[in-house]
Amino acid sequence: xxxxxxxxxxxxxxxxxxxxxxxxxxxxxxxxxxxxxxxxxxxxxxxxxxxxxxxxxxxxxxxxxxxxxxxxxxxxxxxxxxxxxxxxxxxxxxxxxxxxxxxxxxxxxxxxxxxxxxxxxxxxxxxxxxxxxxxxxxxxxxxxxxxxxxxxxxxxxxxxxxxxxxxxxxxxxxxxxxxxxxxxxxxxxxxxxxxxxxxxxxxxxxxxxxxxxxxxxxxxxxxxxxxxxxxxxxxxxxxxxxxxxxxxxxxxxxxxxxxxxxxxxxxxxxxxxxxxxxxxxxxxxxxxxxxxxxxxxxxxxxxxxxxxxxxxxxxxxxxxxxxxxxxxxxxxxxxxxxxxxxxxxxxxxxxxxxxxxxxxxxxxxxxxxxxxxxxxxxxxxxxxxxxxxxxxxxxxxxxxxxxxxxxxxxxxxxxxxxxxxxxxxxxxxxxxxxxxxxxxxxxxxxxxxxxxxxxxxxxxxxxxxx
Length: 466
Known about the structure:
Layout: H1 3-28, H2 39-54, H3 60-66, H4 68-84, H5 92-104, H6 108-157, E1 161-162, H7 165-177, E2 181-189, E3 195-202, E4 209-210, H8 211-222, E5 226-228, E6 235-236, E7 241-247, E8 251-260, E9 270-276, E10 281-289, H9 294-312, H10 317-329, E11 338-346, E12 351-357, E13 362-366, E14 369-373, E15 389-394, E16 400-404, H11 406-410, H12 417-427, H13 433-445, E17 456-465
């Protein structure tokens, strides 16, 4: 792609991002949420009831003519009494207001019933109006996040520059000696700042070269380890192909799980995922749907699948959580609430980030002690502004991360649940994540007599240096 084409495509992407942002701004220009009915709402109720009940009354001319001030005062006192009926405790003043109005109005009971019905309808309308405001705000949040994503892509995807001349000549010469003919060579950096190399190359007729061999040549030429990008082609043939190489990570992670389904249920309400990111990350996640059984399973599965799709597309975990939360808020009528526990590990540096939305405690085994990561946030989908807690840790060679769903800790005795879990983790000496998860599950199930009262999931990950 030439400089002019590159610039024009980048501009088009940026204009697209700007359009989404403007659309988000339109959705955000909304009236404020109302907790109570306003004065104009009460006035409308007052006029509607007056029209429906008093229109055929023989005393209408007296009430709304000569005695209009008294009638108006008693009507507003009655409306206040009707509003107090929805409070947990009534008041004597409310009863007195009704009695005074009934003595004044010959259709007092009918007027009161119509006033109550109109007031209830207005409250329902207010509730749905607030719900619409929340839904529009959730859509605006999604549009805003989409605009940010497009802008980020536009500012990074077109930044792949050509390699410097010396490096290009060195790499091409060494590859040519191995029968790899390079037509184009570009160097870029991923979201984590680590170098990536993109080659357009082919092999001579009759040759088939493994891409791992190409990676070894690049590693020697550049002085740092390169490996083929995941899901890339395995060999290079006579046809011109694009090869993608990334810097190799310093660490690796192996995971294992153990699960138990709530007694009497056909499916577990817990779902989990282990995703290997394109920027040298491993993302572990557990979602616990509210309740148990198939409904809870579908809810947590939806959350996990959306998370995988967003992360696989290159979104950050925080952006993915916001997008998932806003989509669940839009479906709030279905009462779709789920916890979400995310652990993202950078295999280059060992940095580990935890995002917890209503999730249970996570445990990190470090030699002879156990560190905990806790949360007090609410499940995903409860509020428009997602309530999550984030913390960062540094993992070292030999550390073990143990993530659990709520059912695991709930099965252990009350206040001692976390301490007891820490004790089990320390006493379980194995470094095999799958074995560790299963041994922990077996110890927890002993407290339930092997009949779990809730769904349980344990996801363990071992972290080692290559």
